[in-house]
Amino acid sequence: MAGMYYLLLGDFEHANERKDGITLTTAENNECILETVNLSKKYKDVYAVHNVNMTINKGDIYGFVGENGAGKTTIIRLITGLASPTEGTFYLFGEERSGAVKNRRVAGIVENVSLNRSMNAIENLKYQCYICGITKTNEELAQVLADVGLDPNSIGKKTVKNFSLGMRQRLGIASVIIQDPELVLLDEPMNGLDPQGFVDMRNTIVRLNRKGITFLISSHILSELDKVCNRIGLISKGILLDEVSVGTLHSKSTAKTLIDFDSAEEAAAAQRQFYASEHLNSTVLSDKTITVYGSADINDIIAFLVSKNIRISSINLKEKTVEDYYIEKVRGQNG
Questions:
Q1: Separation in Å, CA 323 to CA 143, 183, 220
Q2: How far apart are CA 152 and CA 136, in angstroms?
């Protein structure tokens, strides 16, 4: 539901020990915090999520990347217990979700952050403590604010209605870390932020991760997740296309060269010359630009085009981005 907000602190159902014999592997202490097994959710006759198998290990900042409607929020709702799977299951800290057990090791924000805008930051945190049945001193709450990059002294008694969007987002995160969770799920936390807001949010997530919090972050802003996450899951139309470490993704990346021309006719003529001479066959023509995929020598390209009396407007070498990788995976999935 658009505009709805859920602040979740440990109301998750899981009790049974794992019984399917699957070995959990992770980078830190062989501890898998979250694993989904053929997790599916169907609405009427349509799968919003279908057979998703993903793992989040202790210490991960796991980025969940997909277009709007890809199934990211649905999976977070399933994990947080706001929706029930149609098929499949999932495990939190090695235990299957089945019995009603309070677990304050997990917290999350689903959809939009909702705060009392007539209160200041400390007052909002105190109210959240009251809801959760915990007690924190003003000094402890000030430290929570500092952990998310909000200076208690500078914001003082300023009410939330006077906060920027980025400050409200970070105050929302402060609200979910009050009970010291080990796993935090954030649904589109960077949505609508300005460039400085992106930087502040990245710094907040990294800072909390260094304090021991594991993150699952959903977003359609691939370039931003690439800068903060160590692992990324790519999802489209409810299907998990790939899980890859950012390091592996970068190592797999191939360069592409963009050649711009003054007119579409010149670009088409250049591509015909490439094909006729069997020179740079891996090209894609789009209006006034030719994209050359794979390794290519810019000087060689320029010399070739000069020999054919074809002028170029500009030529640039670009590394493959997360967006490129995602688009390739989606195209492969759609055949």
A1: 37, 26, 10
A2: 15
Alpha carbon distance 89, 19 (integer Å): 12
What average pLDDT does the chain have?
Answer: 82
Pairing of strands 87-92, 32-43: antiparallel
Residue pLDDT, tens place only, 222-260: 777 888 999 999 999 999 999 988 887 776 666 778 899
- Report how far apart, in Å, the C-alpha atoms of 238 and of each of 6, 60, 68, 100 are: 22, 22, 11, 27
Report the length, in residues, of the chain.
335
CA dist 37 and 239 (Å) reads 13
What type of residue sits at position 72?
K
CA 51 to CA 204: how far, in whole Å?
32
Task: Identify the three-state secondary structure at position 59.
Answer: coil
* Contact in structure between 266 and 242 (CB atoms under 8 Å): no
Whole-number Å distance between alpha carbons of 187 and 262: 43
CA pair distance 217, 121, nearest whole angstrom: 23
pLDDT in tens, 3-53: 334 444 444 433 333 334 433 333 444 589 999 999 999 999 899 999 999
Give the residue carrying structure tokens 């030529």. 315
pLDDT at 279 (0 to 100): 60
Strand arrangement, sheet containing 5-9: 5-9, 106-111, 183-187, 214-219, 61-65, 231-236, 239-245
Residues sharing a CB contact under 8 Å with residue 83, sequence separation 6 or more, in sequence order: 41, 74, 77
Cα 105 to Cα 212: distance, rounded to the nearest angstrom: 12
Q: Angle 255-259-263 (CA atoms, 0-180°, nearest 5)?
A: 155
H or E element in which residue 219 lies:
strand 214-219
